[in-house]
Amino acid sequence: MGTIRTRFAPSPTGFMHVGNLRTALYAWLLARSGNGKFILRIEDTDQNRYVEGAVDIIYSTLKQAGIDHDEGPDVGGDYGPYIQSERKALYREYAEKLVALGGAYYCFCEKCEEKEAAPGEEEETPSFSDGRCPGHCDELDAETVKAKLAAGVPYVIRQRIDRSGVTRFTDSVFGGIEIENKVLDDQILLKQDGMPTYNFANVIDDHLMGITHVVRGCEYLSSTPKYNLLYKAFGWEIPVYVHLPLIMGKDADGNVSKLSKRHGSVSFENLVEEGFLPEAIVNYIAFLGWNPKSDREIFSLRELAEAFTLSGLNKAPAVFDYAKLRWMNSEHLKMMAPERFAALAKPFAKVEGTPLEAKWPVLAELLRSRIETLADIPEKSGFFHKLPEFGIEMFNNKKSKCTPEVAKAVLEELIPRFRELPEPGPETVTPIIEEYAEKHGVKLGQPMWAVRIALSGLPATPGGPGEIMAVLGKEESLRRLDAALARLA
């Protein structure tokens, strides 16, 4: 077959759904793993569904995800144009050629301007038991057709289906598929305005662009026999098919259904806005239908390309697990360079223009290993901006045997020691607390708890007392400690 050529052919109809991104990712991985080419094609034949700015979202999403293309509208190539609306004349040429070959026919029925279905769905063909057009235009003789064309009668071009046979094909994921042709309909190939339907344009473009492997969702399985009949009518080689399993979502009750907005964010754009890293999203999406045949789960994009094989794909529906995505995101955060994390996290921390801005590199490093998404930062770091309201009962801790009375004694002894420090930090604060624990024969957790609560008002914080005081600075730290002691007294 030669060089592997795959394509991603999204419709510019809005945001990039994780299912679309997975299709792009697998097509890219297949091409890169085999030193092939990955092509981007914009399928905008249905102008009614076109959304302004959607093409920019496609470019932006692929760029953020690290999925680069070798050919496309913005980079060119030998098989352009790569936007379907710019190939309009080409589709008419091939539709008329198909009529001449006997694989299609002119349909003059008045009800032939049905709304085009979204990619992967069936065309809204009139409900006739034999799947043919309403007036059986496939039976019109050549002279009648010629006369109607000459008279300017509006028409569409439909695929002619031989319903006597069976169409068989082998899918790389789902295996052997067999469908009786009698259940297929004479789908519209060319609409009255001269624009092709998706089901025709994708076959023409895949052939002319030399696509060897077609990667797409399993919702296209039912349409594939009609595509294959088009390939055969033209005498073209049929590509290798890679149909991907459904992505499911789970609601609060545990019910599983096709992933939709009611399950949470389903677009790449929204997930990034919610604090997920692009590389973590890509890493997670790679596992929605693919297994590396090992226990390893954390991969960079380059490592995914090295590990990817078609044999690793499975046909069982994948369930989008937001908890698993959060865990995977936290692992990528931990591996990130401190400087990059600090830059990405700063907008979420809202420290710009505050006293904490100067201490941001220190605070950022405290947060990096203690959050699952960047959106967790405000909750984890809010007490640095403002000490939350809390009662003295917060000083109670059964495990460390701390009580408000014990905390009062701890603070009375330690605050003077902290006041002597030039600038507090873990290297100076922790030894002082350790000395206290040893002197009084108590576990270290007891004085640690008392100081932590006084400084933060929270039972769990990013970092211990020393790290917290390093971020707050000496003046603010002592102010909070003195205020806590006064309340305890």
Keywords for this structure?
about 500 residues; mainly alpha; 18 helices; about 40% helix; elongated; three-stranded antiparallel beta sheet
- What is the count of helical runs? 18
β content, as a range? 5-15%
Biggest sheet character: 3 strands, antiparallel
Shape: elongated
* Strand and helix order: EHEHHEHEEEEHEHEEEHHHEHHHHHHHHH
- Helix residue percentage: 40-55%
User: CA-to-CA gap between the ends?
Assistant: 83 Å
Enumerate the spans where pLDDT stays under 50 for 5 or more consecutive residues. 119-128
Average of pLDDT? 92
Structural class: mainly alpha
Q: What Rg is obtained from the alpha carbons, in whole angstroms?
A: 32 Å
Number of strands: 12
Strand order of the largest sheet: 3-4-7
Q: Which SSEs are present, and which pair or pack?
A:
Elements: E1 5-8, H1 18-33, E2 37-40, H2 54-65, H3 88-101, E3 104-107, H4 142-150, E4 156-159, E5 166-171, E6 175-180, E7 188-190, H5 198-208, E8 213-217, H6 224-234, E9 240-244, E10 247-250, E11 256-258, H7 268-273, H8 278-286, H9 301-307, E12 318-320, H10 322-335, H11 338-349, H12 360-368, H13 377-385, H14 404-419, H15 426-440, H16 445-456, H17 465-472, H18 474-488
Parallel strand pairs: 1-2, 8-9, 10-12
Antiparallel strand pairs: 3-4, 4-7, 5-6, 10-11
